[in-house]
Amino acid sequence: MGDESDDQKIKSQPHIAVVIVEPPINDDHTITKPQSQIVIKRSLSLTPILTSLQAGYFRITLSLCSQALLWKTLGESPPSDAHAIRRLFSLLPSTAFAILWSITLFTLSLLSLLYILRCLLYFHRVKSEFLHYVGVNYLFSPFISWLLLLQSSPFIAPESNYYSVLWWVFVVPVIILDVKIYGQWFTKGKRFVSAVANPTSQISVIGNLVAARAAAQMM
């Protein structure tokens, strides 16, 4: 009787099963990566950068390119009666200007590449920026930056054919944006201008001035 009661107690107790889950193996006998690594890999994608990137970020390159052009202008061989600031810049080594110009070129190239990817992958966002009365003015910024960088280039002479080709490449988008903005202003009247005109509208004026100065150097 004692043995039967012990057997009944053993049968009535719940069974505990230990299951060992091995990582899945593909057909080529390679172990798949854990889920945590996949999540980390996805978080390092360019999607957050491209979705948050706007043409307004090119204000950074506008400042850098302006400084590079200013450095080149002040560092050119001044006349004998030049201002003390120009003499100071003429004494600085040319390597410093080359480093500044290279950093500016790298920054502008990186931003331009990211914005091109944004145009290809998130065209609807770029379209909404183009149709916005404030955002469309910032679309001048990348082309103004390239024109400033072209004028401050220590490697391309204004008389060369490369300079003329690059000038046309950067000026044509400026003309297209001018037609878009000022065409709306002329066709929709003064009431429309009073509704959409804002301080960023001056960027288009700066773009035309920079393009005209770059053209004057080719003469």
List the helices and strands and how they pair.
Elements: H1 2-12, H2 35-43, H3 47-52, H4 59-75, H5 84-91, H6 94-121, H7 123-131, H8 135-138, H9 140-151, H10 161-196, H11 202-218
Helix pairs in contact: 4-6, 4-9, 6-7, 6-9, 9-10, 9-11, 10-11
Please tell me about this protein's structure.
This protein is mainly alpha-helical and 219 residues long. Helix content is 72%, strand content 0%. It contains eleven helices and no strands. The chain has helices at 2-12, 35-43, 47-52, 59-75, 84-91, 94-121, 123-131, 135-138, 140-151, 161-196, 202-218. Helix 4 (59-75) runs parallel beside helix 9 and helix 6 (94-121) runs antiparallel to helix 9 (140-151). The radius of gyration is 31 Å and the shape is globular. The termini are far apart. Residues 34-43 have low confidence and may be disordered.
Q: What is the mean pLDDT?
A: 79
Shape: globular
Largest sheet: none
Task: Summarize the helix and strand pattern as letters.
Answer: HHHHHHHHHHH
Unreliable parts: 34-43
Q: Total number of β-strand segments? A: 0
- State the separation between the terminal residues, measured CA to CA: 117 Å
**Cα-based radius of gyration, to the nearest Å:** 31 Å
Q: List the total number of helices.
A: 11
Helix content: over 70%
Structural class: mainly alpha
Strand content: under 5%
